[in-house]
What we know:
By secondary structure, this protein is α+β, with helices and mostly antiparallel strands. It contains four helices and ten strands, in the order E-E-H-E-E-E-H-E-E-H-E-E-E-H. A five-stranded antiparallel sheet has the order 1-7-10-9-8. Strands 3-4-5-2-6 form a five-stranded antiparallel sheet, covered by helices on one side. It is globular. The termini are close together.
Amino acid sequence: MADCVKITALTGPRLATIIARKGVDALHIGAALGLEAPSRPGRAANDRLALVATAPSAWLAIADADTGEHWLEDLTQSLSDLAAVFDQSGAYCVFRLEGPAARQTLQRGIAIDLDFAVFGPGDALVSSLAHLDVIVWQAGGEESFDVAVFRSYADAFLAWAQRVMATFG
Protein backbone atom coordinates (compact mmCIF):
# COMPACT_ATOMS: atom_id res chain seq x y z
CA MET A 1 0.00 0.00 0.00
CA ALA A 2 3.03 2.30 0.38
CA ASP A 3 2.91 2.67 -3.40
CA CYS A 4 -0.56 4.16 -2.98
CA VAL A 5 0.87 7.48 -1.77
CA LYS A 6 3.04 9.74 -3.86
CA ILE A 7 4.87 12.62 -2.16
CA THR A 8 6.12 15.45 -4.33
CA ALA A 9 7.96 18.58 -3.21
CA LEU A 10 6.32 21.46 -5.05
CA THR A 11 9.01 23.57 -6.62
CA GLY A 12 9.03 27.24 -5.97
CA PRO A 13 5.53 28.18 -4.88
CA ARG A 14 5.46 31.81 -3.84
CA LEU A 15 4.06 32.22 -0.35
CA ALA A 16 3.09 35.20 1.79
CA THR A 17 1.32 35.68 5.09
CA ILE A 18 -1.52 38.20 5.03
CA ILE A 19 -2.68 39.67 8.34
CA ALA A 20 -5.69 41.95 8.16
CA ARG A 21 -5.65 45.31 9.89
CA LYS A 22 -8.12 46.01 12.70
CA GLY A 23 -11.68 46.16 11.39
CA VAL A 24 -10.84 44.42 8.08
CA ASP A 25 -12.47 41.07 7.41
CA ALA A 26 -12.36 38.33 4.78
CA LEU A 27 -14.88 40.17 2.59
CA HIS A 28 -12.55 43.18 2.27
CA ILE A 29 -9.48 41.02 1.60
CA GLY A 30 -11.35 38.93 -0.97
CA ALA A 31 -12.74 41.96 -2.76
CA ALA A 32 -9.26 43.46 -3.09
CA LEU A 33 -7.87 40.20 -4.50
CA GLY A 34 -10.78 39.16 -6.70
CA LEU A 35 -11.76 36.02 -4.83
CA GLU A 36 -13.85 34.94 -1.87
CA ALA A 37 -11.34 34.84 0.98
CA PRO A 38 -12.26 32.14 3.48
CA SER A 39 -13.45 33.41 6.86
CA ARG A 40 -13.02 29.98 8.46
CA PRO A 41 -10.37 27.31 7.98
CA GLY A 42 -10.47 26.77 4.25
CA ARG A 43 -8.97 27.49 0.86
CA ALA A 44 -10.18 29.70 -1.97
CA ALA A 45 -8.51 30.44 -5.29
CA ASN A 46 -8.74 32.28 -8.55
CA ASP A 47 -6.52 31.93 -11.60
CA ARG A 48 -3.70 33.96 -9.99
CA LEU A 49 -3.73 33.23 -6.29
CA ALA A 50 -4.94 30.89 -3.58
CA LEU A 51 -5.65 31.87 0.03
CA VAL A 52 -5.61 29.43 2.92
CA ALA A 53 -7.13 30.76 6.14
CA THR A 54 -4.64 30.08 8.93
CA ALA A 55 -6.14 32.07 11.82
CA PRO A 56 -8.81 34.72 12.33
CA SER A 57 -8.05 37.51 9.85
CA ALA A 58 -4.90 35.74 8.61
CA TRP A 59 -4.18 33.82 5.41
CA LEU A 60 -1.35 32.09 3.61
CA ALA A 61 -1.29 33.41 0.05
CA ILE A 62 0.01 30.95 -2.54
CA ALA A 63 1.02 31.76 -6.11
CA ASP A 64 2.62 29.50 -8.70
CA ALA A 65 6.36 29.67 -9.24
CA ASP A 66 5.83 31.17 -12.70
CA THR A 67 4.01 34.18 -11.25
CA GLY A 68 5.81 37.39 -12.16
CA GLU A 69 8.82 38.46 -10.13
CA HIS A 70 6.86 41.42 -8.70
CA TRP A 71 4.04 39.29 -7.32
CA LEU A 72 4.78 40.24 -3.69
CA GLU A 73 4.86 43.95 -4.48
CA ASP A 74 1.60 43.59 -6.42
CA LEU A 75 -0.01 41.70 -3.52
CA THR A 76 1.23 44.25 -1.00
CA GLN A 77 -0.08 47.11 -3.16
CA SER A 78 -3.49 45.45 -3.55
CA LEU A 79 -3.79 45.18 0.23
CA SER A 80 -1.91 48.34 1.25
CA ASP A 81 -4.74 49.83 3.35
CA LEU A 82 -6.17 46.49 4.43
CA ALA A 83 -3.42 44.17 5.62
CA ALA A 84 0.23 43.57 6.34
CA VAL A 85 1.92 41.20 3.88
CA PHE A 86 5.05 39.18 4.67
CA ASP A 87 7.02 37.06 2.20
CA GLN A 88 7.15 33.43 3.36
CA SER A 89 8.55 31.84 0.20
CA GLY A 90 11.79 30.86 1.89
CA ALA A 91 10.16 29.84 5.16
CA TYR A 92 8.10 26.85 4.02
CA CYS A 93 8.39 23.75 1.89
CA VAL A 94 5.14 22.56 0.34
CA PHE A 95 4.61 18.86 -0.32
CA ARG A 96 1.78 17.23 -2.23
CA LEU A 97 0.54 13.87 -0.96
CA GLU A 98 -1.71 12.09 -3.41
CA GLY A 99 -3.09 8.65 -3.91
CA PRO A 100 -5.54 6.23 -2.30
CA ALA A 101 -3.71 6.24 1.06
CA ALA A 102 -2.86 9.97 1.25
CA ARG A 103 -5.70 10.77 3.65
CA GLN A 104 -4.86 7.76 5.83
CA THR A 105 -1.18 8.77 5.89
CA LEU A 106 -2.01 12.25 7.16
CA GLN A 107 -4.54 10.89 9.62
CA ARG A 108 -1.77 8.94 11.35
CA GLY A 109 -0.15 12.18 12.46
CA ILE A 110 -2.93 14.74 12.79
CA ALA A 111 -5.41 14.61 15.67
CA ILE A 112 -8.22 16.07 13.54
CA ASP A 113 -10.84 14.05 11.68
CA LEU A 114 -9.84 14.00 8.02
CA ASP A 115 -12.73 11.85 6.84
CA PHE A 116 -14.00 13.08 3.48
CA ALA A 117 -17.41 13.80 5.01
CA VAL A 118 -15.87 16.52 7.21
CA PHE A 119 -12.62 17.48 5.41
CA GLY A 120 -13.14 17.85 1.71
CA PRO A 121 -12.41 20.22 -1.16
CA GLY A 122 -11.95 23.77 0.06
CA ASP A 123 -11.09 22.73 3.62
CA ALA A 124 -7.82 23.55 5.38
CA LEU A 125 -6.28 23.17 8.80
CA VAL A 126 -3.39 24.40 10.89
CA SER A 127 -2.23 21.77 13.32
CA SER A 128 0.60 19.69 14.62
CA LEU A 129 1.61 16.57 12.72
CA ALA A 130 4.05 14.33 14.58
CA HIS A 131 5.21 17.37 16.61
CA LEU A 132 5.69 19.47 13.45
CA ASP A 133 3.60 22.57 12.76
CA VAL A 134 1.81 22.18 9.44
CA ILE A 135 -0.77 23.85 7.23
CA VAL A 136 -2.79 21.31 5.25
CA TRP A 137 -5.37 21.84 2.52
CA GLN A 138 -7.08 19.58 0.05
CA ALA A 139 -5.27 20.17 -3.22
CA GLY A 140 -7.90 19.06 -5.67
CA GLY A 141 -9.12 15.52 -5.88
CA GLU A 142 -10.50 13.55 -2.97
CA GLU A 143 -7.09 12.04 -2.24
CA SER A 144 -4.74 14.94 -2.88
CA PHE A 145 -3.40 17.20 -0.13
CA ASP A 146 -0.82 19.96 0.11
CA VAL A 147 1.19 20.24 3.30
CA ALA A 148 3.23 23.34 4.14
CA VAL A 149 5.92 22.71 6.73
CA PHE A 150 8.69 24.98 7.93
CA ARG A 151 11.69 24.45 5.66
CA SER A 152 13.96 23.45 8.55
CA TYR A 153 11.60 20.55 9.31
CA ALA A 154 11.14 19.31 5.74
CA ASP A 155 13.46 16.32 6.20
CA ALA A 156 11.71 15.38 9.46
CA PHE A 157 8.33 15.51 7.70
CA LEU A 158 9.56 13.29 4.86
CA ALA A 159 11.10 10.80 7.30
CA TRP A 160 7.82 10.64 9.24
CA ALA A 161 5.80 10.14 6.04
CA GLN A 162 8.10 7.32 4.88
CA ARG A 163 7.81 5.57 8.26
CA VAL A 164 4.02 5.81 8.15
CA MET A 165 3.81 4.58 4.56
CA ALA A 166 6.04 1.61 5.44
CA THR A 167 3.42 0.44 7.97
CA PHE A 168 0.87 0.00 5.20
CA GLY A 169 2.78 -3.04 3.95
